[in-house]
Amino acid sequence: MKKDKPIEKEILKKQCQHWENKFSNKTDMFGVEASVPAQKAARKFKKEGKNKILELGGGQGRDTIFFAQNGFEVYVLDYCKSGVEAINKKADKMNLSDSINVKCHDVRDPLPFSEEVFDACYSHMLYCMAFTTSELEFISDEIKRILKPNGLNIYTARNTNDADYGTGVHRGENMYEVGGFIVHFFSEEKVEHLAKGFKIIDINEFKEGGLPRKLFQVTLRKIDSN
Q: Which residues does UniProt call coiled coil (predicted)?
């Protein structure tokens, strides 16, 4: 696949408004049931006693609500105001506001938290949004910064076995725009590249949705430098 196409960052930045429009026009765009990756992550978190969780790219909150219902203290960041509003409304309606703290934030900027305050970080398809590799490196470093020693980072990303990979409009690197959405498709090499400062516990391929989409669920542990 072509990898030398210039990256037009202004096009990538417009994805925020695209997602904002989608979330505003369709309540529960991805359904109300927790995703399979969230269920799997919750089991891992519980087994290891990880209680204070940071979720990046919470969307409209289907996984957020699930984590809170299962006893986790959940902090959530999403760059769409409509998503943040949806999560807050659901948390209030379900009496989960004490367990959920949600904020509008672009993860290309430093995470608004101190060092080593979270037991774990979780994100479902945030990594495969319209981020360049250098932006993903920054996000990975920020996650490492806010995690406690031996903290877990569990994320999912669509991979290069996906049927959409290489289709649509090439936006540079392994990014392709299909149906208005720009996706950064991951190879195992990309997972390994972004794991600096972490130990790779697991890279599990799974399918989701009607295409179906093909994704990796990656489980990383922060390396204790002490």
A: none
The whole-number pLDDT of residue 21 equals: 60
- Distance between CA atoms of 213 and 206, rounded to whole angstroms? 8
Cα-based torsion angle of the residue sequence 125, 131, 142, 88 in order, rounded to the nearest 10 degrees: -50
Cβ atoms within 10 A of the Cβ of 29, count? Answer: 14
Strands across the sheet containing 100-104: 100-104, 73-78, 52-56, 118-124, 147-158, 213-222, 198-208
Under a CB-based contact definition with an 8 Å cutoff, are residues 77 and 111 in contact? yes
Q: Give 35-91 pLDDT, tens digit per residue.
A: 999 999 999 999 999 999 999 999 889 999 999 999 999 999 998 888 899 899 999
CA dist list (Å): 170 to 1, 128, 225: 10, 14, 39
The verdict on domain 9-26+34-222 having CATH code 3.30.930.10 is no
- Bridge partners of 181, per DSSP, are 178
State the Cα–Cα distance between residues 90 and 131, nearest whole angstrom. Answer: 28
Q: How confident is the model at residue 17 (pLDDT cuts 50, 70, 90)?
A: low
Domain ranges of the chain: 9-26+34-222
Contacts of 225 (CB under 8 A, 6+ apart): 149
